[in-house]
Write a structure and sequence with these properties.
The chain is of the alpha/beta class. It has one domain (15-233, 349-446): Rossmann fold, CATH 3.40.50. 25% of the residues lie in helices and 20% in strands. It has twelve helices and 18 strands. It has helices spanning 15-26, 100-108, 162-179, 199-212, 239-245, 251-254, 313-318, 321-326, 354-362, 380-389, 430-433, 435-446; strands spanning 39-40, 54-62, 69-77, 88-92, 111-113, 125-127, 137-141, 151-152, 160-161, 188-193, 221-227, 286-287, 294-295, 346-347, 366-372, 394-403, 406-414, 418-423. Strands 1, 2, 3, 4, 7, 8, 10, 11, 15, 16, 17 and 18 form a twelve-stranded mixed sheet that branches. It has a two-stranded antiparallel ribbon with strand order 5-6. Strands 9-14 form a two-stranded parallel ribbon. Helix 3 (162-179) packs across helix 4 (199-212). It is globular, with a radius of gyration of 21 Å. Belongs to the peptidase S10 family. It is found in: Secreted. Its main location: secreted.
């Protein structure tokens, strides 16, 4: 297998090598170890062969020639429509530390767990008919390092941060495209949700600057997509007004209440295998659904009627030896797989991605920002506020968008090529609660059609 070394330092020293390598690879019948040998045709828990192309693998990333090395794990699913022409999405799940598998099976991928009571056997998988892979190629990426099946190879690589995440994602994508030259001309979008609202705009800017500097391979970057995105420190300011506006609290409490954040305001309070960093400090407390007090706890399986019940099935599946073998996971690379790993030493170097949105708008990139309108973790009011602060003129004013002749949400478009949409009845995150509507929304937008 060809080995490619690449380090992003703002210069063009490797341009000639990369250009030559791309030309050679495109003009030969070179077979990559990251393609055919990494194809997954069967998965434990799923009946029969997979009806779509799934590839899994690792790509090594480094900051500099003498700095840390890590192996970044990915799941790649080809578009079920027209892989050669359809866009390529690089997807980051939130957290930080929530696995790419979580985005794949709980949000926008073609597989999902059958949400049955756990009986000790391997959880079963089924097809999801409203996968975004119906119209796009998607790379689901385990970042930051330590997330999912990604792992550090040196002590210094254990320590992670916002900027390491950004650089690693950028380097990963250029290396991945070298290994998959047939996708070099596809339109590329960077996407994610929740906490990914912080790093995704920075990643887009980083890739754009790399293109401007002549870094190879050139990436056909078109824009970005964010769902229920954390964006500014003022996010918290909108939780109480949102709660008041949704009649969750009284006028009297409105002045004094401290918020308890829920992924969907109509859902029962349930235990979660992950307390979101947006919600409370890491590794701290859980909410007792009986009396709403806070207590330290080892997690137990929530009732079947809880939205979070299905989350608890994923570790039983991902930690199975046969599953790891099918996914080509390297033995001894990680210990216990976690859906959301909050033990990663992670430094939040920025908690405000607003300046990057402003810069990307000036550079003309398209963007789709969407919010479940029943999400209290990142209320749509907060998202509306920072979008309004961009001060771009409105092209298509606030109106309904429809699915099956019913109002599916509301939307507005701006002169900076940004579309903001709410998803009626959606929580945190919207595709988990409204998969059909979110696929329709994404399909229309990615095809440059009105919502």
């Amino acid at each position: 297998m060809a080995t490619v070394s690449w380090y992003y330092n703002g210069n063009n020293t490797s341009i000639f090598i990369f250009t030559l390598l791309v030309i050679v690879l495109q003009s030969t019948h070179f077979v990559f170890a990251t393609s055919e040998s990494n194809i997954v045709k069967f998965l434990p828990g799923f009946q029969g062969p997979l009806p779509f192309l799934l590839e899994t693998g690792y790509i090594e990333v480094s900051e500099t020639e003498t700095d840390e090395n890590a192996e970044v794990f990915y799941y790649f699913i080809e578009s079920e429509n027209n892989p050669k022409e359809d866009p390529l999405l690089l997807w980051l799940t939130g957290g930080p530390g929530c696995s790419a598998l979580s985005g794949l099976v709980f949000e926008i991928g073609p597989l999902t767990f059958i949400n049955d009571e756990y009986n000790g056997s391997l959880p079963n998988l089924a097809l999801r008919s409203h996968s975004w892979t119906k119209v796009s190629n998607i790379i689901f990426l385990d970042l930051p390092v330590g997330t999912g099946f990604s792992y550090p190879k040196t002590e210094s690589a254990v320590q992670q941060s916002t900027w390491k995440l950004v650089h690693n994602a950028h380097q990963f994508l250029r290396k991945w495209l070298i290994d998959h030259p047939k996708f070099l001309s596809n339109e590329v979008y960077i996407a994610g949700d929740s906490y990914s609202g912080i790093p995704v705009p920075i990643i887009v800017q980083e890739i754009s600057y790399g293109n401007d500097d002549g870094l190879q391979p050139w990436i056909n970057l078109q824009g970005y997509i964010l769902g229920n995105p954390l964006t500014t420190p003022k996010n918290d300011d909108y939780r109480i007004p949102f709660s008041h506006g949704m009649a969750l609290i009284s006028d009297e409490l409105y002045q004094t209440i401290s918020s308890v954040c829920m992924a969907h305001i109509l859902e029962p309070i349930c235990e979660s295998d992950f307390i979101d960093a947006i919600e409370v400090p890491r590794r701290t407390v859980l909410i007792n659904k009986a009396d709403h007090t806070l207590f330290s706890s080892s997690l137990t399986m929530p009732p079947l009627n809880c939205q979070t019940h299905v989350y608890f099935l994923s570790p039983y599946w991902a930690n199975d030896d046969n599953v790891r073998k099918a996914l080509h996971i390297r033995k001894g690379s990680i210990g216990k797989w976690k859906r959301c790993n909050q033990d990663i030493p992670y430094k939040d170097e920025t908690l405000n991605s607003f300046p990057y949105h402003a810069n990307l708008s000036r550079k003309g990139f398209r963007s789709l920002i969407y919010s479940g309108d029943h999400d209290m973790k990142v209320p749509f009011l907060a998202t509306q506020a920072w979008i309004r602060s961009l001060n771009y003129s409105i092209v298509d004013d606030w109106r309904q968008w429809y699915y099956n002749d019913q109002v599916a949400g509301y939307m507005r478009t701006y002169s900076n090529r940004m579309t903001f949409a709410t998803v009626k009845g959606g929580g945190h995150t919207a595709p988990e609660y409204k998969p059909e509507e979110c696929l329709v929304m994404f399909s229309r937008w990615i095809s440059n059609k009105p919502l």
